[in-house]
């Protein structure tokens, strides 16, 4: 797929979708159990002990998104065309990750007997939240990409425009213009003296 081979996919869209998936996953577990302490215990008992590592991954993804937007601004500054806006189909990626993550976590932690937990209606709500988050993420990435590109172009236009009141250097002087030269008075030699009275 052409999108997957693009640099913007790895530095902008995919990290943003990882953040969206993590937020949707966290929101799903918050709906299931609003109390922080109880939720942490439930997550640890249900095979979600890895969630603490995800915060570092999310922080790295946020840095990558910032780098991707900066690259878009630089491309605009260099007058490169804007291309490669993500398709809305990518909004389904967080749902797919959620659908894999939940059963795998249960299987690893509880074995096949724990798969009955997947009948919880909160998981259906989680899938809806993941889809909404993925869609919002793709739309925001598209808007931010265009805005960063336009900002780069605007900076390039400002750089080319001369400052108000500034003169352009190295302009040839027309031949018929005689420069004015100030000469020091002959009697004073350019030194300060009292006025001459007759």
Describe it.
This protein has six helices and no strands. Helix 2 runs antiparallel to helix 4, helix 4 runs parallel beside helix 6 and helix 5 crosses helix 6. The protein is elongated and about 110 Å long.
Total strand segments:
0
* Shape estimate: elongated
Give me the Rg, rounded. 32 Å
H/E series:
HHHHHH
Strand content: under 5%
Uncertain segments are none
Q: Structural class of the secondary elements? A: mainly alpha
Q: What percent of the residues sit in helical stretches (DSSP H or I)? A: 55-70%
Largest sheet: number of strands, sense, barrel closure: none
Question: How many helical stretches?
Answer: 6
First-to-last CA distance: 98 Å
What is the typical, i.e. mean, pLDDT? 76
Characteristic key phrases:
single chain, 198 residues, mainly alpha, 6 helices, 0% strand
How would the blueprint of this fold be written?
Elements: H1 2-5, H2 7-32, H3 36-45, H4 51-77, H5 93-110, H6 121-160
Briefly, what is this?
With 198 residues, the chain is mainly α.
């Amino acid at each position: 797929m052409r999108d997957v081979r693009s640099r913007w996919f790895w530095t902008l869209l995919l990290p943003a979708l990882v953040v969206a998936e993590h937020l949707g996953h966290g929101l799903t577990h918050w709906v299931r159990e609003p109390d922080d302490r109880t939720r942490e215990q439930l997550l640890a008992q249900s095979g979600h002990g890895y969630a603490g590592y995800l915060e570092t991954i999310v922080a790295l993804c946020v840095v990558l998104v910032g780098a991707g937007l900066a690259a878009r601004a630089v491309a605009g500054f260099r007058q490169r065309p804007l291309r490669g806006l993500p398709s809305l189909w990518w909004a389904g990626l967080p749902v797919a990750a959620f659908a894999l993550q939940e059963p795998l976590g249960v299987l690893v932690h509880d074995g096949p007997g724990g798969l009955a937990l997947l009948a919880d209606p909160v998981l259906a709500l989680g899938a809806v939240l993941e889809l909404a988050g993925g869609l919002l993420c793709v739309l925001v990435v598209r808007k931010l990409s265009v805005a960063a590109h336009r900002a780069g172009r605007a900076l390039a236009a400002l750089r080319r425009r001369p400052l108000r009141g500034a003169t352009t250097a190295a302009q040839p002087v027309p031949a018929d213009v005689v420069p004015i030269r100030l000469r020091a008075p002959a009697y004073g030699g350019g030194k300060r003296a009292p006025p001459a009275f007759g």
